Amino acid sequence: MKLNVTDCAGRLMANPSEESVDVVIDRVDSKFQDHSDRFRIVNKDFSRQYFHFYAERLSSMKELLLPRINQKWGNDIPVKTLADLKEDSTDRCIIVGTLFKHQELKPSILKEISEENQLVPLPPRSEFTHDEDQLILEDELQRIKLLGDLSPHSVITGVVCAVLGAEHEGGKFRVEEYCFPTPCGPSRPLTPPAEDRYIVLVSGLDLAGSADVLFPFELLVDWVSGWLGDVGEQKNQALVSRILFAGNSIRCKSANRGAALQHVSEGLDQSNTLDAVKTLDDFLEQLSSNIPVDIMPGEFDPSNCTLPQQPLHCCMFPKAAAFKSLHSSPNPYDFEVDGRRIIGTAGQPVDDIAAFTRISDRLEILQRTLEWGHLAPSSPDTLRCYPFSDTDPFIIKELPDVYFVGNQPSYQSKIFRGDDGKEVRLICIPKFYLTKTCVVLNLRNLECHTMTFGEPTSEDMEVEK
After folding, report:
1. Fewest C-beta atoms under 10 Å: which of 80, 207, 271, 450?
2. Between the CA of residue 73 and those of 131, 148, 162, 172, 284, what are the distances in Å?
3. Which of 24-33, 194-203, 227-236, 345-354 has the lowest mean pLDDT?
C-alpha cells in the first residue's frame, strides 16, 4: 500500500523555492494470522444448560492447575475432592474447584417481575458487593463454604482455583493459601519485528450518540492514512501496519443495554444508528484503501448481545467491504501480527467484574483475568454468553504478547511478567468519544503511547467516573 504525500493540487511542495515533486511513501507490509475461530459460532443451539459449560471449564483448567500446584506446594500435600474430606479431620489438603459468590445484592429476576407488574422496583445499582458476601467452592460433586484469606471481594463467580487448607468445624474449609491457573508462555516461539512497527487501537467511537466525535475521528483517519504532517511525520505513519476498532463504534452508552434496545424498538434513534453506520462505512472505506483494518463489535453495536459476539456483517459496510483489507472480527478477538500474539475484548468482562467486586482499578482487573487464565470468568453467571457444551473458548492457555480491553474510562498500561519471565503488555483502551484518544503500540518492543485528536469531553468524563 502507498501513502501519497501531496498538496490539494496533487503535488507535494517539498520546498517553496524548488520545483514541485510527487513523493510516494511505501507503507510497511504486515504478516497477519487470525486465531479467533473458536469464537465463531456456526451451529447455534440455545436449548442446552450451562452445567456442561462449567464442567468443561473445571476439567480443562484443572489440567492447567496441577503443574502450578506442584510448583508452588510440592507433592507432599494430597490433592483431594470434596467427597474425600472426612468428618472431624484436620489434615491439610488441596482442593480444586470453581468459586461461587453468594451475594445479597446480585440482580434478581424479581426485579423484572416487579417492573412488569408495576410494583415498586428495586433501586438501580452500579455495584453489587456487600460486607456479608460469602465464597463457596464447588467441584464436580459437592460444594463447601470457604473461610480464611481469600476475600470474596477480590474474586468473581466462575474463577477456577486451588485452595490449600483444612476442613473447619461446621463443615467449612479454612484457606491458608490459594493458587490460580495462570498460563505460561507460548509453546511456539514467535519472532517480533527487528524494526519499529506499529498498530493503532481505538474503541468507543459512539458515532450515533456523540456529535462532537466526528472531527476528531476524521483527524485520526487522516493521520493514519498519511494526509497529515510533513514528510518526516508521514514516514512514521507509514510504519503503522494495522488499525483495530475494539467495539462500540456505532453506539457507546453508559445506560444498560436493555434500555438502549428499548429505545431502538420505539423508533427513537433508528435514524441516528443508520446514519452512524453509513458514516462509519465512509471512514472505513478511506482507511481500508490505505491500511488493514480490524473491527470488533461491542456491547451496544448491532451484533448479538451474548459473548462471544459474532463479527459485524459485511453488508453493513458496502463501500469498505470492497477492500480485502477490511477484517470483521469477533469479540473476544485473538490474532497474530508481525510476530506478536494479541488477544482482547471490547470491555464487557472487565466492566462486569468491576461491578461485582471491590477492585476499582480497571488495569488490575485486566491483570486478574490473566492470572485467572480466563477472558470472561463471570459468564454465564452475571455476563451473558453462549451455552457451550464441550468447550470453553474463553480459557487463556498461553500468555499472549499483548492483552487489551476496550471502552475503558481512561488509558492505562503496564507490563505483566509471568513466572517463566514471559512479558505481556496490558492495555486499557479509552473510550474515544470521551477522551479523543487512541493507543499506538510498537510491536518491536511492546512500548505504547497515546495520540489525542481533540479536547476530552469533561462533563461526560465526570458522569463516567
Report:
1. 271
2. 31, 18, 11, 22, 52
3. 227-236
